[in-house]
Amino acid sequence: MDTNTDALDQLPDAVAASAFRRLVRHLRHRHDAQNIDLMGLTGFCRNCLADWIVDGGFEGDKATAREVIHGMPQDEWKATRQTPATPEQLARMEASLALNAKD
């Protein structure tokens, strides 16, 4: 895709940052949307968002970035919000990740 003509790249940084924060806060509120389900449907999850902020220049480490996204340490999030993945969820995630590799 030619990013020179992509309207997304024309968004002011403040607008993009506001939308990103809204997405993260929405995901914090909707902890019923499990990471495994997000991965199975979209090919990304909260942990990916944390990785992306590190890739974007966040000065903290991966654990700190995940705490920013989760709103708490990842271990706490996993203990209080994450449910065990089923074989079906894992299969959907693997199929979805395969689609990511084609981009």
Topology:
Blueprint: H1 13-29, H2 35-42, H3 46-55, H4 62-70, H5 74-81, H6 87-101
* Percent range of helical residues: 55-70%
Strand content: under 5%
Report the end-to-end length measured between terminal Cα atoms: 10 Å
Q: Any low-confidence stretches, pLDDT <50, length ≥5?
A: none
Number of helical runs? 6
Radius of gyration, Cα only, in angstroms?
Answer: 15 Å
Largest sheet: number of strands, sense, barrel closure? none
H/E element order: HHHHHH
Structural class: mainly alpha
**E-strand count:** 0
Q: Name the overall outline.
A: globular
Mean pLDDT: 94
Tell me about this structure:
The chain is mostly helical and 103 residues long. The chain is 65% helix and 0% strand. The termini are close together.
Short description:
By secondary structure, this protein is an all-alpha fold. 65% of the residues lie in helices and 0% in strands. The protein is built from six helices and no strands.
